[in-house]
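Case study 2.
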Amino acid sequence: MSAPDLIDPRELADLIAAGTVRVLDVRWSLPEPDGRPAYEVGHIPTAVYVSLDDELAAHGAPADGRHPLPATAELQAAARRWGLHDGDTVVVYDDWQMYGSSRAWWQLTDAGATVRVLDGGLAAWRAAGLPLDAGDVVPEPGAITLGAGGLRQLTIDEAAALPAAGTLLDVRAGERYRGEVEPIDPRAGHIPGARSAPTAESVDAAGRFLDPASLRERFAGLGDAGPVGVYCGSGVSAAHAVLALRLAGIDAALYPGSWSQWSNHPGRPVATGPTP
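Prediction:
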């Protein structure tokens, strides 16, 4: 699928051969948050490793959530370590459902960079028969200047108020939304008024985003007219949902604190069951 925010493996390979792209490997998963060992075994040529936990998230109190957004200055310093310069085209990828790469896409797009996600991630690259390199890539420092505010986001109070004026989507697995299980955060359930829209339903069997028409059909009927907001457990897979909504032509706001922040505020109400 051709889309400004996505890239397929063959196109990425051509850009790498031409030397006109910066590639970031954002391998991260809940079971294995440190993706560097896997990166060093094999990564897309020229790719620089990015630590989601250390470089794409701040570290605060539990009431801030598990992956609060870093300050712009901190993100800029990290981006310069990755070798990024103003005007660069950046491609991000990972090997777990495009979650880590979508988080990097959201943050760098919000900061003013030009970023594309490798559709289907590392699995798509391998399926195309393209090569991998081993070891580490340490680039010369970049000089990129980043800002903030290019994309919409919600505070905890704005997320609480949104269902009355628009649509708040909870993109965690259905059983977590319903409150049947909660493996990570202190309380089970969902934000009152939020609708269930699991992120996994935005991709096909190969792990690539559905086409825009299918995504529009998927999101149709999930809410009334009005602004759209998205949350997940800690603001990672919600970035994937924001990208899916954007591909469908819907401008959605990210609630970065997500359930990990909400559930750590005892005064915030919790809903359970299959309905908002």
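Residues 96 and 186 are 25 Å apart (CA to CA).
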